[in-house]
Amino acid sequence: MQTRLPLSGAGLGLKRELMSQLQTEQPSAIDFFEVAPENWIGIGGARAKQFAWFAERYPIVAHGLSLSLGGPDALDEVLLHRIKGFLDQFNIPLYTEHLAYSSVGGHLYDLLPIPATEEAVKHVAKRIHRTQEILERRIAIENASYYVASPVSDMSEIDFIRAVLEEADCDLHLDVNNIYVNSINFGFDALEFLRQLPGESIAYVHTAGHLQEAPDLIIDNHGDAVIDPVWDLLDEAYKLFGVSPTLLERDINIPPLADLVVEVEHIAALQRKYLASTPRRLLA
C-alpha cells in the first residue's frame, strides 16, 4: 500500500469538469483535493483511473454528504463500510461530515439543523462514536448553515457544537462561510461566534462564496467568489487558532480554473502570514 500523503496547505474541490485541465496544468497553489465519497465509491472505467491519478499525487479529503449524523433513521452502516473501503483504498487521511441531518424515512437531499438539546447531543455523539469505530479513524464534524432555527432547542448553537465535540471525542471541521451565512440570517456577531469555538479541536477548514438573496438572507450555495467579510473571518481563525488545511468550496457556476486558483492562492497567502508565528496543523 502506498504511503499516506500528509495533508496541509490550501485545497480545492475535485470537480469532474476540471480534472483533465488539472492533470495538464497541475497548479502549484493546490496542495490537496476534496471529494464527496458518495460520488466516487464504486466508480469504474476511465473516471476511476483518472481519480487514481490524483490520489497517487495529492492528499484527498473525503467530505460526506448523506450520513445524516443527527437524523432519527438508523445510522447507515452499509454506507459507512463502503466509505471505509474507499478511504483505505486511496489512503485518505481525513473524513468529515456535517453536524446536521438529511434523512427521515429516506434521504431529503438537504441538510437540516439538529435541535440543540442535551438529548440530541447524546444522540449525535453516539452516532459519531459508531462512525469512528467503523471507519477506524477520528472524524471531523462541520458547523452547518441553516435557515430555520429549531423551536425545541434549549442551548445555543455554539454550546451545542462544543457539547457534541466533547461528548463524541471528535474533531471540528470549521466552515467560516457557514458562520457568516448564519450570522446574517439570524443576526449575531460572526467574529464573536468564531472566538467561542474550541480552537484545539479544529482539524480542517472550508471557505466559500454564497448567494445574497436579500440584505438579511444568504443562501449557502458555494456558487460565487468568496467575499471580503468571509476572508476576514478566515484570517481571524488563523490568528486565533493557527493554520489548518483549508479548502475553497465551489460547487456550482464553476468559473475558469485560473479564477479558482486565484482564490486558492489567497488562502495560501493568509496561511503564510501566520505560519511563522503559529503552528501548522498537519494530518498524516
Reading side by side through the largest sheet, how are the strands ordered? 1-2-3-4-7-8-9-12
State the domain count.
Answer: 1
Oligomer: single chain
DSSP strand count: 12
Percent helix, as a range, is 40-55%
* Average pLDDT level: 91
- Rg for CA atoms: 18 Å
Low-confidence stretches: none
So how many helices?
Answer: 9
CATH architecture grouping: Alpha-Beta Barrel
Structural class: alpha/beta
CATH homology-level superfamily: Divalent-metal-dependent TIM barrel enzymes
**Which sheet architecture does the biggest sheet show?**
8 strands, parallel, barrel
Shape: globular
**Termini separation:** 15 Å
Summarize the structure in words.
This protein is of the alpha/beta class and 284 residues long. The chain has a single domain, classed as Divalent-metal-dependent TIM barrel enzymes (TIM Barrel), CATH 3.20.20.150. Helix content is 40%, strand content 18%. The chain is built from nine helices and twelve strands. The chain has an eight-stranded parallel beta barrel with strand order 1-2-3-4-7-8-9-12. A two-stranded antiparallel ribbon has the order 5-6. Strand 2, helix 2 and strand 3 form a beta-alpha-beta unit. Helix 4 crosses helix 5, helix 7 runs parallel beside helix 8 and helix 8 runs parallel beside helix 9. The radius of gyration is 18 Å and the shape is globular. The two termini are 15 Å apart.
Brief overview, please?
The protein is of the alpha/beta class. It contains nine helices and twelve strands.
